[in-house]
């Protein structure tokens, strides 16, 4: 097991990589605990929820909404939950986001922790303190930044994760390497079969390195005024692709990263060979590197992106694999690449 601390300005957070969900009691303590999970995870891991107070949401992005949040609030109200209660999200990024948002807002804040059960949640969604829900189809438009007390990344739970979801999580690991950890890119090139084959040592290394990248960025810029935006590499276009084409988050981000790398080459910032390396790394692990995009719909979706400043989008480009830069770009420049 590897333990990392995220020293957020608002609060610290402990991320235990390779910890099992069965050890949750040690992190929660003796107080009351309410779990938030989704129907898939609840069905696969009934032993985790037996005799517990659980809110089971429907899986999927369409349910990561204020309606679901309100339904959880109502359950907490009915059950007379008070400030001594801990809310624990057990699941992928969606369950953790909903649980984190509820915990941050109900009674102006309850204790909160996560058991991240998808690779994407382990390397990205559960770490860093962002807890958001969707509004009118726009991703994570409503949310708060608040660190969870603990995040348990139970690697053994990845055995039941559908392979497509595993690959989506891998896209975020690639992102972490591409923006800030060239050694992780090398490791992924050499060991991706081990990761997709669920080799625990390879997984622990990748999850640890990816969480390390996120922790360092969050520590210097928790509220995303600059450095943290680099974590959005591949996400500005990725979110728009996700919305317009309905691709899963990780696949949309993979396509977004390829476009951002090509744009970096076009601007003379990145060597073409580095962009090809990134593209090959994604393609050889079964991630898409292009998508049948409706250019206008994507530009419109991006116009509503939270990262937009005036007429410019703060775009994350690469200088080399392992080093990102923030560049303000006009939508017309993006249009040319799309
Ligand atoms: N808060 C953040 O900083 C942040 C960062 C990145 C992504 N996100 C959000 O995370 C979400 C995507 O996360 P995700 O891909 O984990 O989505 P998800 O929660 O929908 O999980 C993907 C699927 O896997 C299932 N699942 C989860 N764990 C499983 C397991 N161990 N075995 C079998 N099935 C399992 C889920 O039921 C779901 O069907 C998006 O909503 C995205 O916006 C948030």
Structure write-up:
- Helix 8 (182-196) packs antiparallel against helix 9 (200-220).
- The mean pLDDT is 94.
- With 338 residues, this protein is an alpha/beta fold.
- The longest helix has 21 residues, at 200-220.
- It has helices spanning 24-28, 39-44, 46-49, 66-78, 93-105, 119-125, 163-180, 182-196, 200-220, 235-245, 249-266, 272-284, 295-303, 331-337, and strands spanning 2-7, 12-17, 33-38, 53-57, 86-91, 111-116, 130-135, 138-145, 150-153, 308-309, 312-320, 323-330.
What is the strand and helix layout of this fold?
Elements (H helix, E strand, L loop, with lengths): L1 E6 L4 E6 L6 H5 L4 E6 H6 L1 H4 L3 E5 L8 H13 L7 E6 L1 H13 L5 E6 L2 H7 L4 E6 L2 E8 L4 E4 L9 H18 L1 H15 L3 H21 L14 H11 L3 H18 L5 H13 L10 H9 L4 E2 L2 E9 L2 E8 H7 L1
Parallel strand pairs: 2-9, 3-4, 3-5, 5-6, 6-9
Antiparallel strand pairs: 1-2, 7-8, 10-11, 11-12
The chain binds nicotinamide-adenine-dinucleotide.
The site of nicotinamide-adenine-dinucleotide has 30 residues, from helix 2, helix 5, helix 6, strand 7 and strand 8.
